[in-house]
Write a structure and sequence with these properties.
The complex is a heterodimer of chains A (274) and B (206). In chain A, helix 10 packs across helix 11. By secondary structure, chain A is mainly alpha-helical. The longest helix of chain A has 14 residues. By secondary structure, chain B is an all-alpha fold. Chain B has eight helices and no strands. Chain B is globular. The chains are: A mainly alpha (274), B mainly alpha (206).
């Protein structure tokens, strides 16, 4: 992990290769340099995200909570205990909870109702920090990885699935907070950047598929495994919003909207990103 | 609900991506706001104001930043009323401080609680300015050389000051934050950014 962080710092330092030149680099030059950098960090053999997959697998099978149960009977939408391909068909409506859930909300539901776990400490460390694992993160990595190589096929037939999707679209364009930002502010044009970071354009299927198909991911800049719930929280943090509820209706509606934009796209996770 | 708003909402729903073979339900503004309120449980009243919209945000969201001319005029008139000038009347401050602020994305994020640090304007997130700074975003127009063509007249100082203080007094539903009106930057800080853009010695214009 330390070696990886060091490699990142080195890559970061060597990035302003244009600094000596008097004229600013063209957009093409910047984009090519960035592409080389992205290739450098996307070697799957050195992706620490797979440690989270392994930890998640152990957690999935471990008997825990007041009911001393494992998660092996948890129904992720394809039947109790079926993990293979489940992530490719989420978010979806669950009759037992009577609401639409993404993978992370569903894991939380199973931890509460099947294992009888106290959710408070689990939610307190929903996002890992140095030295502090997140069970939700590890489990998400494990389950999502079992859909690697499959294509997004989120169901959109139950009225609540359709409602969540339309709600997500409205939320995507909803401006708020001190900066007046919505998702659209940064993601409505193709090929745009914040600083040097390229922004996915979700109305371009290729962009939506590449983005959604590569989460969860190991984020080098945070030296941590990160899930889509974290990505949404992080966007909202940058938008100067308060901390959005983990698995809340807003997050799931947005994830439904974005996942539908990526339909047909291949899942390759965990990936590794900046 | 005003008829114009309702019509816009219905139009926006109709042009959206169709779901194959399905009737798309209408999400009422009340339903949307209820979902928002329920997704930030237990936050302070001060933070709750951040998830709620003012009239300008509401119109821009509903029209997806394409307000009618009448809506745009309403917005620009209302937003113009928010503009306050620095106490000393100087609209052009210190471009060096402006450059520091333009590089900083600090401020108003959860956890940004250091009383010794000031909020940044984070201009480089979206704009090219000083040509020596290659880490710039592209969401806004490039501003390199901005002052060269425009000079430093009182009129241009006032225009640039107003645009940073509240861009929506000039361009309704612009993507740019209303830095002064929303309390991100103080009037004195905004004057520093005006200098960054207009002062002949600013790296933006050299």
């Amino acid at each position: 992990m330390k070696a990886l962080a060091a490699a990142f710092v080195l890559a970061g330092l060597s990035l302003p290769i244009f600094a000596q030149s008097q004229t600013p680099p063209s957009d093409d030059e910047v984009e090519r340099a960035l592409e080389r950098y992205r290739e450098m960090i996307s070697d799957p053999m050195s992706n620490p995200g797979f440690l989270a997959v392994d930890r998640g697998e152990q957690l999935w099978m471990e008997r825990r909570g007041a009911r001393n149960a494992s998660l092996e009977t948890c129904d992720l939408g394809r039947g109790p205990g079926v993990v293979q391909g489940a992530y490719a068909q989420l978010p979806r409506y669950f009759a037992d909870a009577d609401r639409v859930m993404d993978l992370e909300a569903r894991l939380l539901w199973c931890m509460e109702h099947i294992q009888g776990l106290d959710l408070r400490p689990i939610l307190q460390r929903r996002f890992s920090r140095p030295g502090i694992y997140s069970d939700l993160e590890s489990l998400t990595f494990y389950v999502a990885h079992q859909s690697s190589g499959e294509r997004f096929a989120m169901p959109l037939s139950h009225p609540k699935e359709i409602e969540a999707n339309v709600l997500g679209e409205q939320l995507y364009y909803r401006r708020s907070a001190p900066f007046d930002f919505s998702c659209q502010t940064c993601h409505s044009q193709e090929g745009q950047r914040i600083r040097l970071q390229r922004l996915p354009h979700f109305d371009t299927p290729r962009d939506a598929q590449a983005t959604m198909g590569s989460w969860p991911t190991f984020r080098v800049s945070q030296t941590a495994p990160r899930t889509m719930q974290h990505r949404i929280w992080d966007c909202m943090w940058q938008m100067r919003l308060p901390d959005v509820g983990y698995g809340s209706e807003v997050t799931i509606a947005l994830i439904s909207y974005l996942t539908h934009k990526a339909r047909g796209g291949e899942i390759q996770v965990p990936s590794i990103k900046r | 609900m005003k008829p114009v708003l309702l019509a816009t909402l219905v139009a926006a729903t109709l042009v959206a991506t169709p779901l194959a073979g399905q009737q798309r339900p209408t999400i009422t503004p009340e339903r949307l706001e209820q979902a928002v309120q329920s997704s930030w449980p237990g936050i302070s009243p001060e933070l709750r104001r951040r998830i709620e919209q003012d009239d300008t945000m509401r119109i821009c969201s509903m029209t997806r930043n394409n307000p009618t001319q009448a809506q745009a005029n309403d917005i620009m008139t209302r937003e113009r009323g928010s503009i306050r000038l620095p106490a000393n009347g100087q609209l052009m401050g210190d471009w060096r401080r402006g450059e520091q602020g333009a590089l900083s994305g600090y401020g108003l994020r959860m956890g940004d609680n250091d009383p010794r640090r000031v909020n940044g304007g984070n201009c480089y997130a979206c704009h090219a300015l000083n040509p020596a700074e290659i880490s710039f975003g592209t969401l806004g127009p490039p501003l390199t050389g901005y002052g060269k063509a425009r000079g430093t007249s009182a009129e241009i100082q006032r225009e640039v000051y107003e645009k940073i203080y509240n861009i929506q007094a000039w361009i309704a539903c612009s993507n740019m934050p209303r830095f002064g009106a929303n309390g991100i930057l103080t009037p004195e800080q905004i004057a520093d950014y005006v200098a960054l853009l207009l002062h002949p010695e600013s790296p933006v214009n050299r």
